[in-house]
Amino acid sequence: MSAATNAPLAQLRLRLTAWYVGTFGLILLLLGGGLFFAIRRQIARQLDTSLHQAVLALEQAARIREVESRTTTGAVVDAVDELHIPDRMLYLLERDGTPVKPPAAPDWIRDAARRAAREGRADLDRDEPREPTLRIHAEPFTVPGPRAYVAVAVADVVELEDQYSALIYAFGAAALVGLVLVAAGGWLLVRKSTAPVEQTMETMRRFMADAAHELRTPIAVLRGQAEVALQRDREPPEYAEALRRIEREAERLGATVEDLLTLARADAGERPIARERVFLDDLALDAVTAARALAERRGVELEVGTFEEAAALGDPTLLHQMLMIVLDNAMKFTPQGGRVKLSAAAPGAQAEIVVEDTGVGIRPDQLPHIFERFWRGDPARGRGDGAQGAGLGLAIARWIADAHGAQLLVTSEPGKGTRVAIRFPPVVSSS
After folding, report:
1. Contact of 304 with 271, CB cutoff 8 Å
2. Is the CB of residue 21 less than 8 Å from the CB of residue 179?
3. Which are the contacts of 345, defined by CB distance < 8 A and separation ≥ 6?
4. What is the pLDDT of residues 177-195, one digit of tens each?
5. Using CA atoms, how far apart are residues 350 and 147, in angstroms rounded to an integer?
6. Which of 47, 271, 383, 428 is most exposed, with the fewest beta carbons within 10 Å of its own?
7. What's this model's pTM, rounded to 2 decimal places?
8. Burial class of residue 198 in the structure, from the number of CB atoms within 10 Å of its CB (0-12 exposed, 13-18 middle, 19+ buried)
9. What is the rounded CA–CA span in Å between residue 380 and residue 382?
10. CA distance linking residue 64 with residue 67, whole number of Å
């Protein structure tokens, strides 16, 4: 494919891949944001729960020590000393905010204790510049006596930030890997999905280039013939000969244009195909009758082989055109004195038409290409009498065969001839 044709497809692939990656990235961003806030809330709840449990443990230890000693407040103080909760700071205060253990407490701890005494509990965050953020939970409680205290538990929120960072790093790494995989998978998917488009564009480009090349030759001949005829005054017979040459080239040009239109309609699906019961032996007989004059002009013997009643479903006009293309191609590459034989039969349930010739044959390396558009193979195969066509006939024949579900089977041996068998699917009886 040329660079001019490939550039738009490459840009399209890049844009589609970018859309895939962008869409997936947006989904990851929304999903990650939602998960982050949900997990953050859950982790914050777990921290509050751990602080609450620390306070309950302090209260329980204080009550036990008070019951055991029934003495001074030293027993409650011992409860604070006995507890060792990792990453938690514990305070025991009077309801008015007076520290019990430790003997001194910051003002913000005392304020939390007084607030808990008033409201029944207190959950606060302390966030001061250049200092760690702290989470505070305080609850009032009583011990047998009765004496009233406030238990306070404090945690550094840095442990939450560490969990957040680990979560962000893990999700970011997973998202990055996901984006890389989506980019690679999207690129492969885009390449695979645009491959038919690329192939179609390449086929169209080649078709247009080949068509322009084929049309240029007869147009150049027409122009040259007209210029030669107009260079000087000529006798009427000379003008008549020039016009006959112009007519032949115009006929060739018209045939090429008609073939191009046929293939264009076939590609676009604009050619309706009739489905009616036809008899291939009758079609073959009509084709032989129509091609006999051409065979005589080319010095080729047209022979009728086996003729059996062979029914098929199809479009009579298109099937006749296909038979004429195959016959014309056989006579085109059969030297004078050679023979072309046409047979129609119905071996088994499948009807078939067979065209055999004693022509120059086709080399094995060329056989797979004979149905390609504008392919004409080795020029040496031609008859040298101007019968070489534009290379569209067999492409049209293949399209007609495919449209009827028929098989177009070609076997050939260089120097000995070619055999073309058109095998049709069985006709299902309507009864």
Report:
1. no
2. yes
3. 306, 307, 308, 310, 351, 352, 354
4. 888 888 888 888 877 777 7
5. 109
6. 428
7. 0.49
8. middle
9. 5
10. 5
